[in-house]
Amino acid sequence: MWHALKSAGTLDDRIQRGLDARNRVPHDAHADLYRSQVRPDPLRLVLEQDQGRLPSLIPLRRQRMSADVHQYFRGSDVVMAADLAVTPVSEINVQASGDVDVLSFGYYLPPDGAPVFDVGYFDETLRAPWEWDVKRMAASMAVAVGARGGAAKDQRVVARAAVEGYRRGMAWAAGQDRLNLWFARIPQAEVDRAIDKPSKKRRDLAFAEEDLLYDDMTIEVDGNCLLRHTPPIYGLTEWLSEADAVRVHDGMVAIMSGYATSVSPEVQQMLSEYRISDIAMLARGVSDVGLRSFIVLLQGTRRQERFALQVKEARQSVLHPYVLPEFRHRGNQARRIAMGQALIQSQPDPLLGYSRWQDRDYCVSQLRPVVSGYLRMNQPNLPRFARLCGFTLARSHAVTGDRIAIDAYLGDSDSFVKAVSRYAVRYAEVAEADYTQFAKFVADEQVQIPPDD
What we know:
Strand order of the largest sheet: 7-8-9-10-12-11
Mean pLDDT: 89
Number of helices: 19
Strand content: 5-15%
Number of strands: 13
Shape: globular
């Protein structure tokens, strides 16, 4: 451990590391797509991700992905991972989210009850080049604006705001004491600058109604608290056979037992006073559809002593084939996700843990409302929101990578910002073409994966 701290180098060493990286990879290089002539077929990559998913849910996943180009973008992270792998990098690695999207950012409630704005999706997290996250974030902004009907000019403005927010956030982080940065949240001034009062009121109302959320999602039958089967919550037999539903129900005890060993002793003690009241399936979002995702309702002694855990299947990160060999995770994939979230978020879920059952890994977390900032933003306010997202991503990279070197690489000019915003708009065009191909496949109800060229 102490050897690792000493190897970080002096302040001058770390600044020079960033400057040397900029000489090797100039900012302008990031504007190019660097698409290889042998780019993998995007449709094939997407369809290959269906392998191992629940067959009954694959049509629902494809239907959601074909809704618009942004939904496709969210569900096709495997495609952009392959595309990013051939782009230039500064060789400075961080704990990357791996699937940064405009909808990944939002508010959630940590144990102290004060809303926190942060990154909120970690299924693909892995140690990787920081540029990959930044480019995916910027591209997601451009794609989302395009899906709303925005022109290329609007896409560029929002993408540029996100990257500028990242540059400013990294400059802020580089000036922070390391220990203070580890516990720091995004400065409130940054949040206030991005989120208007009506959005804050809607956020606070959503969190104030958390108790009502449980009233809406549960029913009482013969004195037992059970889950109400309304989308995105489904009964086990709606997507599983009777036999598989029985196995899942019985296996959840084994999953929860394994999960209990992955959390801290105080959480173990707290969980010991709860029993499993009900189990249901959860099918929400785009990327998760088809994975084995469940809600476990836990009941305490009193009727109102209840909370829900999400138990979700974890698979190998889409970044795995492209990162350095020493960064590839070969153990429990849910443990990778839990560790990545704990590193990235300023206030991670204390109930976050993992388990394994029947050769599948499962990540376990508390099911609580997350208020998306993007969905509550109108077009004129999107650049401010994008800037906050970039700032937030910078904080997560700063606590898991060499913030001094990254800040030195970015420098004081806006050349990196311009380059990545150009990349984002160009990649949005690529995503649109890929989406058209996928939507046609879904419409034609094809069943065979196209052969290699």
